[in-house]
Amino acid sequence: MKEIRPNELIINAKGETRQIYPPRIEITTPEENIITFPDKKEIHVDWRRTFDKISQISRLVEGAEIVQEEGTFNVPLSHPEIKYAMGLVFADSHIGSYTSDHDLIRDMLETVLATPNAFLADVGDTFDNGIWGGLAHEGVIPAYMQAFTVEDIIREFGDKYGACVVGNHPEWMFTQAGIKPEATFAKLMKGPVFAGMGLLHLKAGNQNYDWAMAHNYWGKSKKNIFNVCVNLRQNEYPDADIFTVAHEHVWGYMKEKIDGKERLYIRPGTAKIRDRYARIHGIARRGQEMGVAVILGTEERFFEAYSIEDAVDLQFVRKKIADLNE
Fold first, then answer.
1. Residue 29 neighbours by CB under 8 Å, 6+ apart
2. Which of 15, 23, 159, 290 has most Cβ atoms within 10 angstroms of its Cβ?
3. Domains of the chain: residue spans and CATH
4. What single-letter DSSP state applies at residue 136?
5. What is the pTM of this model?
6. Which among 217, 141, 213, 132 has a CA at the least distance from the CA of 174?
7. How confident is the model over 271-296, as pLDDT tens digits?
8. How many Cβ atoms sit within 10 Å of the Cβ of residue 175?
9. What is the pLDDT of residues 51-86, one digit of tens each?
């Protein structure tokens, strides 16, 4: 058999071969295209080190946060002989907007100051901060003065300002300017500040209650305004006693028993009762006035919602009874 050399190729059945030559292709780079950087700075990137630094800064920022997810508030009992405390639900007051009823706001605040064992539970949009869309034309005073006004309210209330939720209106301070609105509340507040939602642990005398507070939550329904409260219970705070969701400017309260426990749902209403935005967008003809209060037993476990008028009357009737028994 004929030996086939590496550079030969059989070309037919007779075994004839032909010598082949591989193509000679010489690839060269034009000298003008050869770029060198003899003084280029060397870059040393280590993704693990980068992650470590990010985590370090994240912990620094988190440690400086004012808001919290849960907080405890000791209800001030100015009249311990009255075995009940009262929490007025303050929500969507939108202080500073001409669309809000500031006489209503004043009455609510003065009521808390004058009522025995009363405190304020603020569920958001305390001041209007109307820097978005047409809201910019509704402010009677500028946004910074609205914030100063709220600070002065907190200063006077002292330990009667139980807790505050940052709503979407004050949050525009952060989205537009990078300024956290909770700084306005936290300077003088004794109670906790929640971003959007939080769980308030209430200590009222010898009794403890858990109050889930949210400015807004999903599952809105015009046919069942308490659907958001139910969702808040099911998805966030299944063991809480009281559930309050604001934002929609609707008013109402109801109770049901779940897992053998009574649960109280509250939609607190608003002071913004002249709302052009709501009318134009078919949300509602007008906002429903806020004025829901929760009565809490300090000796025996009891919690129930009332209109603000009925709750105040109950507190003063109990005070009269307590005074007569002394």
1. none
2. 290
3. 70-325 (3.60.21.10)
4. G
5. 0.84
6. 132
7. 999 887 778 777 778 889 999 999 99
8. 11
9. 999 999 999 999 988 999 999 999 999 999 999 999
